[in-house]
């Protein structure tokens, strides 16, 4: 077992929400004057610590709003923790919401280069990799089409191809392990396994406990931003399952009470 | 961390993201001109049509006693359009790319800088047209024309600073676009594009220098129409506006950089 790839120490992330979203200056001034301007601060992630070593695959579990996505944003550097710190040793590629962020007016090649540039690669690297990306996506005949003319399935195929061809060291997966139709799904799953094997570490966010049990050697369980547990996969998955069952039966009871 | 290492780090970062920068500029170009020659031509045609209308309307009122009135207006229009276009596209540059920077970790100022490049190129094309007009209108070209680079550089920096401020404001307040439209409209009338400020007495004339865009327009006219190099204090004023805008913009950006996500 090797070196530490990602270390998160007492990470807290504060999030602000409320009236500040989608508001105009005029409305803002009016609300301020009438005392009707409400913003709410809350900890989306509250004092979370974990460590990922070389070769690890970490699963993150928790119900909706547990802070999983926010935690990933901190790891990728999109957000900064308000307390604590995250140290990352390696190049990260996050496959968060694969198909978004492409430009509808650009064609496939231009979008691929733009995405490659955003992931921090050089032009030479993309020149070398682009033929592979195109071949993997099997979309050669659509190369010159603007993106708005492609179907959503095609978009996620090219997105996956780009993300997987660029050899990330640390891979972050948000519920995506495969895309596309039958044949392509199989191919992408295989490719994904290859990347995981080649890379240094992987983080997987999933609601499928079976998947987590099968793939991950460590698990982090979050609930309302708090760290419930971190460590052994089977033990924590069992606890989480129990927690879910309990909640379900409580809900049912409430229903039958009414 | 000292200022020097900060600058050095930033420089390193810019170098690292050169590829991204080029791709973004390319994207803006494709989107703007829609891959048509007409799109390119339009960026010259638009300003020329404005100029024609203004010449037809205003020559009777303001241009009677003025030599090279067309050039006089052209200078004003050229610089003001550049200012307006650059700051307006800069203002929306962050919000329009929010989908990207909320998913991928990229330096957000790249979106602003790349949008500035597009309008700068547009400005360059129209500057060439201005020189053609100068030649036709019999304006004498002198070595002093090289000095025009000075106000251009100042205006570029000023626009970037304004863009930083405006893009942050636009992230916070969605109606900034309309408010800014009103603001630029008013500022345009205060920039003496088609009239001369000589009609006011000397004290009142100084008020015009509170408007940075007017300072840059004035610089252009002094060099092109009067063949005079402005005073050192004038140079200081021109640079001062740019630096102040850039500093305020930098502070706003630094402070808000990681908070933009809250507004999405």
Chain-wise SSE layout:
The complex is a heterodimer of chains A (258) and B (264).
Chain A lengths: L3 E15 L6 H10 L4 E15 L3 E5 L6 H9 L6 E6 L3 E4 L12 H11 L4 H15 L14 H14 L4 E5 L7 H17 L2 E5 L3 H7 L2 E6 L2 E7 H25 L1
Parallel strand pairs in A: 3-7, 3-8, 5-6, 6-7
Antiparallel strand pairs in A: 1-2, 1-4, 8-9
Chain B lengths: L2 H14 L1 H16 L3 H26 L6 H28 L1 H4 L7 H29 L11 H24 L3 H14 L12 H6 L4 H15 L5 H25 L8
Helix pairs in contact in B: 2-6, 3-4, 4-6, 4-7, 4-8, 4-10, 6-7, 7-10, 7-11, 10-11
Helix fraction of chain B, binned, reads: over 70%
| Full CATH superfamily name of chain A | P-loop containing nucleotide triphosphate hydrolases
The chain-level mean pLDDT of chain B equals 89
What is the H-and-E element order of chain A? EHEEHEEHHHEHEHEEH
Rg from Cα of chain B: 20 Å
Structure, described:
The complex is a heterodimer of chains A (258) and B (264). Chain A is 42% helix and 26% strand. Chain A has 258 residues and is of the alpha/beta class. Chain A has one domain (4-257): P-loop containing nucleotide triphosphate hydrolases (Rossmann fold, 3-Layer(aba) Sandwich). In chain A, helix 6 links the parallel strand 6 and strand 7 (201-205). In chain A, helix 3 packs across helix 4 (123-137), helix 3 (108-118) crosses helix 5 and helix 4 (123-137) crosses helix 5 (152-165). The mean pLDDT of chain A is 84. By secondary structure, chain B is mainly α. Chain B is 76% helix and 0% strand. Chain B has 11 helices and no strands. Chain B has helices at 3-16, 18-33, 37-62, 69-96, 98-101, 109-137, 149-172, 176-189, 202-207, 212-226, 232-256. In chain B, helix 7 packs antiparallel against helix 10. The radius of gyration of chain B is 20 Å and the shape is globular. The model of chain B has no long low-confidence stretch (mean pLDDT 89). The chains are: A alpha/beta (258), B mainly alpha (264). The A-B interface holds A 15-17, 20-28, 73, 76-80, 92, 94, 96-97, 100-101, 103, 105-106, 110, 113-114, 117-123, 126 and B 16-17, 19-20, 22-24, 26-27, 30-31, 34, 99-106, 169, 172-176, 179, 258-259, 261-264.
